Automatic annotation (TrEMBL):
GO molecular function terms attached to this record: DNA-binding transcription factor activity; transcription cis-regulatory region binding
Organism: Mycolicibacterium hodleri
UniProt protein name: TetR/AcrR family transcriptional regulator
Top-level taxonomic group: Bacteria
Pfam families from the UniProt entry: TetR_N
Residue spans binding DNA: 61-80
Record-linked Gene3D superfamilies: Tetracycline Repressor, domain 2
PANTHER family: HTH-TYPE TRANSCRIPTIONAL REGULATOR BETI (PTHR30055:SF234), HTH-TYPE TRANSCRIPTIONAL REGULATOR RUTR (PTHR30055)
Length: 242
């Protein structure tokens, strides 16, 4: 009986079942090692990407991620041929949480409290790292699954705002578009202040909500100090002490 050809140059052991008719593949130690190396490289790429995106945002180069992961550029591209593929792998779980926040708020019993909680939780999620801050203020195509999450999120947020407006309790008729502008502003603020004035994002969101909701529904945290603001603005005189 003629044995099937060996795939490529990787040695593979062939044997047959008890009938002698059906070949079965047994991987050699060399092939197992190659697969283990590939899995380690993929895990290293994901860990490096998550760290670099959190530190620098999503515009970082794939070359920088490969350098941080201590793998070759070709190895990174073999696992993630596009920047979008890597972003999708790193952030899909976060974007699912982003969608769930809005869908939970759309079903909540108190429409006005639901709007407050949805905006606060979404902006707090955005503030967890610079890469996520960028993505929640963007419609950059990543994958069909992420596109579907964004459609669901927009539908849910529209419901949240419409329900709150219909109560007649809001100070202004806020809209999902106002919320989108807040996310864009918050992303820029996070990039500039997360290291030097980390509570700035929470204050921005609370001040925004204070202009929309009944005042007794919002607690506004303290403003950043002058020193924190000067550091965030790059003033050498506001540098942290060594």
């Amino acid at each position: 009986m003629t044995e099937p050809p060996i795939r490529g140059c990787i040695p593979t052991c062939w044997t047959y079942d008890q009938t002698g008719m059906h070949p079965q593949i047994f991987r050699t130690g060399e092939e197992v090692d190659m697969r283990a190396d590939a899995e380690r490289n993929r895990a290293a790429a994901l860990a490096a990407a998550e760290a670099v995106y959190a530190e620098q945002g999503v515009e970082v180069s794939l070359n920088e991620i490969a350098r941080r992961a201590e793998i070759g550029n070709a190895t990174l591209y073999r696992h993630f041929p596009t920047h979008e593929a890597l972003l999708s792998e790193v952030y899909t779980g976060h974007l699912e949480r982003y969608c769930a926040i809005a869908e939970d708020a759309a079903r909540a019993a108190d429409p006005v409290a639901a709007l407050r909680d949805c905006v606060t939780a979404t902006c707090a999620l955005q503030a967890t790292n610079r890469g996520l801050a960028d993505l929640l203020a963007s419609l950059r195509p990543l994958s069909p699954h992420v596109d579907a999450l964004r459609v669901r999120h927009h539908r849910a947020v529209t419901t949240v705002f419409r329900r709150a407006v219909r109560t007649g309790e809001l100070c202004v008729d806020a809209s999902p578009e106002d919320f989108a502008v807040l996310l864009i502003a918050n992303a820029g603020l996070i990039h500039r202040t997360v290291d030097d004035a980390p509570r700035s994002s929470a204050r921005l969101v609370a001040v925004w909500l204070a202009g929309v909701l009944p005042h007794d529904m919002v607690d506004v945290p303290p403003a950043p100090t002058e020193t924190q603001v000067r550091r965030a603005l790059g003033d050498p005189g506001g540098a942290r002490p060594r």
